[in-house]
Design the sequence.
């Protein structure tokens, strides 16, 4: 008997082991990496085969059979499976959780739940209750029903339906029925072609059948055609059907692969590489030619031509018939990178990101599996595309926070990229104008090779940057969002026919709403954070997306003296319209980019000079190369410094440097004005000077003193419970066990060097979310593997009340 160990694809943390099933003879081809349907807990679910074995011993309990296969071939390549196993162990999650990431939409199946009546109602008193009787009779009469269908058919019991169904299930009067269907909806088209070669004699026989003759001559001249194309030639389906019966033509179905970027047109001029670009290429290409795994960090100032380096390396890899994965941090940047690569690889690339439909992502994956595309571009999820024979992984803007997933499994794309690059013997290239402290630190230790491009293409100078002290502006009577210097810069820029970008890292109209009588700030009922006012008349929580109407009176004291404080992108847009009525302004933030290609449409309109000012949040700060932009304004540049996080200064510096880099990239020197209330902070002064080295020296000294990454590694534990005291007590109990174990280990080895620190518990930034209290415990360590082993021994990775985050990017 042949058996298979299968991880079921159910997003439940406690299901962290494989289950053994029997492989029936009809599915003898099933092996490691296949997706299968298996019976599990009374339902048919999807699972992943992780191992197989031949068993001769009889078992006390007979095994259930695998029901069917999901695909026509193995889904997971050996490299994908090895990567999933390593990552699951590293991030302390189940293998199924990690393997789910390697599929578009995390599952190839849609599970449908229906309720069905059982024929054992005799003598059951529960059915004397009107609601129970009505639901039961409906199921007997109509057959198995979904809950939504029952609500429509029994509107009188809609509010109590959940309670009624639970009662009926408990008394075994009804049962659950599950149905699994493939979520992917493939699209096909009919292709009509000649069934055999036609002689003159054959064509003579159709002289009295003009419609059929027309179709045959059209196919002889144009080749195979879709039915839609033939309809445009006024050829009826009846004509096609009659000729199919004779065998002169044949009709076949062909799958249509959807691609939202297929109509994107791009042209490239002959590029003369700079000396910096040539040096970088000469350092990396030998490793590509040797199929040797190496890691490189490319620090290139904004406008230095990093994208062209990526393209040249990709061309080299494709010539060797290996494949390339290109990562960008934000969907907003994808379009620009796609256009740059499309000019060189017009039919050889696919794009994958979460804004595409599941069908489009499935079709992109199919193109990759067929070998029809050798360049994969996308956000972090593109890493999980089943790409074989990878030669190069490029991670642009590697410092960006978007590469970290904030839900389980909480992976960082940089870690996944390193694992895959190592398994494929590929080169990993990290690119940035402002590399993360972690990556730069690893170049100092020799783990990553450092490369630099310190000059802009064409030796265009970096923009002139200056800082406005907003405290002085306030003292001089200017209470607006814009300083006088920035207002003057924007006006002069527009007068010259040039464009400006203004970045404010707050969306909405107002940052909070306050009662001036009692001081009450209107807060979200779910998470306790201040609600933000939007001009559509709603208060919105930017954490959990709760929407509430604006109250007429203060909910605490009843006063009507409610006032809006602070400023968001909507308010800034309103102020700009008031100050410059003739200026054409377009806003790019989360509220204006909900549609599929809204990011790209906004940027294209701005690039085509349909607008004078692009106003937005961090979306406008990175990667965009718009020739006519010569002015940049950064509002509240030091707001990030007020966040209680050791990375606050790093984020502030990066934001200033990246946003300033959008100005003056094509000839004319740009001007940047930075508005701040703390202009003397080293993150701001270094950002103005674009001085990464000085910033790194100041920041790494602080990190070393406080034992923060990259000097140490960090683990964040989030304890959650509806009872505040229990959540805090569990966190404190864990801290006591941790200190006891690691103190004894340190004493055993007699080491004085600090190895581990544990901090907390402290309330999370969102201390209570939908009735659940949350406490944070932080571990700083030089021995991450030992800490992971301890967490595993404690069983924390199986506890539903604890979220584990390895290498977190936020402390709270």
Sequence:
């Amino acid at each position: 008997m042949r058996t298979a160990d299968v991880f079921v694809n159910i997003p439940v943390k406690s299901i962290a082991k494989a289950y053994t099933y029997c492989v029936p003879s009809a599915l003898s081809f099933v092996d490691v990496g296949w997706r299968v349907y298996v019976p599990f807990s009374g339902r048919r679910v999807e699972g992943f085969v992780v191992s197989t074995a031949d068993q001769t011993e009889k078992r006390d309990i007979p095994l259930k059979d695998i029901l069917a296969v999901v695909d026509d071939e193995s889904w997971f390549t050996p490299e994908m499976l090895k990567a999933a196993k390593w990552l699951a162990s590293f991030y302390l999650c189940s293998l199924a959780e990690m393997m789910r990431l390697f599929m578009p939409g995390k599952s190839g199946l849609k599970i449908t739940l229906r309720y069905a009546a059982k024929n054992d109602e005799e003598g059951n008193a529960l059915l004397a209750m009107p609601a129970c009787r009505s639901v039961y009779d409906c199921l007997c009469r109509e057959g198995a029903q979904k809950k939504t269908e029952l609500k429509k058919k029994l509107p009188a019991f809609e509010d109590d339906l959940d309670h009624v169904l639970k009662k009926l299930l408990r008394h075994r009067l009804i049962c659950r029925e599950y149905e699994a269907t493939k979520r992917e909806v493939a699209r096909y088209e009919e292709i009509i072609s000649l069934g055999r070669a036609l002689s003159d004699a054959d064509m003579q026989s159709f002289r009295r059948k003009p419609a059929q003759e027309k179709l045959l001559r059209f196919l002889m001249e144009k080749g195979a055609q879709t039915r839609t194309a033939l309809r445009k030639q006024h050829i009826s389906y009846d004509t096609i059907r009659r000729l199919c019966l004779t065998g002169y033509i044949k009709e076949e179905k062909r799958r249509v692969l959807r691609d939202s970027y297929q109509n994107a047109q791009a042209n490239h001029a002959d590029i003369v590489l700079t000396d910096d670009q040539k040096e970088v290429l000469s350092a990396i290409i030998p490793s590509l030619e040797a199929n040797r795994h190496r890691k490189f960090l490319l620090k290139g100032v904004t406008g230095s031509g990093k994208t062209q380096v990526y393209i040249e390396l990709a061309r080299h890899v494709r010539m060797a018939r290996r494949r390339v994965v290109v990562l960008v941090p934000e969907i907003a940047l994808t379009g620009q990178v796609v256009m740059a690569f499309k000019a060189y690889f017009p039919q050889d690339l696919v794009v994958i990101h979460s804004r595409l439909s599941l069908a489009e992502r499935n079709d992109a994956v199919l193109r990759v599996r067929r070998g029809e595309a050798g360049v994969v571009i996308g956000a972090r999820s593109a890493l999980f595309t089943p790409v074989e024979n990878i030669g190069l992984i490029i991670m642009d803007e590697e410092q960006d926070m978007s590469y970290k997933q904030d839900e389980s499994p909480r992976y960082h794309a940089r870690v996944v990229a390193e694992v895959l690059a190592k398994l494929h013997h590929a080169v990993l290239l990290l690119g940035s104008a402002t590399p993360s402290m972690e990556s730069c630190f690893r170049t100092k230790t020799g783990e990553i090779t450092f490369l630099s491009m310190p000059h802009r293409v064409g030796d265009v100078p970096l923009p002139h940057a200056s800082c406005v002290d907003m405290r002085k502006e306030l003292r001089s009577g200017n209470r607006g969002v814009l300083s006088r210097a920035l207002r003057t810069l924007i006006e002069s820029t527009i007068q010259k026919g040039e464009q400006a970008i203004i970045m404010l890292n707050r969306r909405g109209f107002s940052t909070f709403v306050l009662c001036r009588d009692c001081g009450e700030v209107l807060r979200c009922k779910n998470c306790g954070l201040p609600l933000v006012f939007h001009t559509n008349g709603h208060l919105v929580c930017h954490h959990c997306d709760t929407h509430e109407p604006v109250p007429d009176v203060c909910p605490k004291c009843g006063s009507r003296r409610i006032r809006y404080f602070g400023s968001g992108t909507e308010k800034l847009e309103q102020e700009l319209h008031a100050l410059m009525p003739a200026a054409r302004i377009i806003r790019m933030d989360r509220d204006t980019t909900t549609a599929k290609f809204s990011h790209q449409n906004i940027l294209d309109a701005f690039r085509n000079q349909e607008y004078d000012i692009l106003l937005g949040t961090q979306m406008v700060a990175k990667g965009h190369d718009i020739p006519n932009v010569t002015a940049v304004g950064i509002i509240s540049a030091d707001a990030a410094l007020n966040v209680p996080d050791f990375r606050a200064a790093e984020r502030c510096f990066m934001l200033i440097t990246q946003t300033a880099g959008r100005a003056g990239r094509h000839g004319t020197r740009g001007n940047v004005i930075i508005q701040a209330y703390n202009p003397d902070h080293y993150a701001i002064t270094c950002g103005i000077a674009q001085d990464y080295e000085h910033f790194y020296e100041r920041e790494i000294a602080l990190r070393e003193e406080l034992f923060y990454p990259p000097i140490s590694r960090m683990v964040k534990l989030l304890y959650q419970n509806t009872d505040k005291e229990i959540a805090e007590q569990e966190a404190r109990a864990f801290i006591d066990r941790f200190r006891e174990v690691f103190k004894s280990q340190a004493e055993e080895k007699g080491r004085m060097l600090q190895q581990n620190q544990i901090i907390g518990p402290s309330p999370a930034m969102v201390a209570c979310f939908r009735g659940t209290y949350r406490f944070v415990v932080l571990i700083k360590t030089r021995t991450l593997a030992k800490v992971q082993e301890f967490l595993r021994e404690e069983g924390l990775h199986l506890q539903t009340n604890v979220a584990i985050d390895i290498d977190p990017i936020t402390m709270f």
User: Anything to note?
Assistant: The chain has five domains: 2-110, 111-182, 275-458, 464-509+567-705, 713-806.
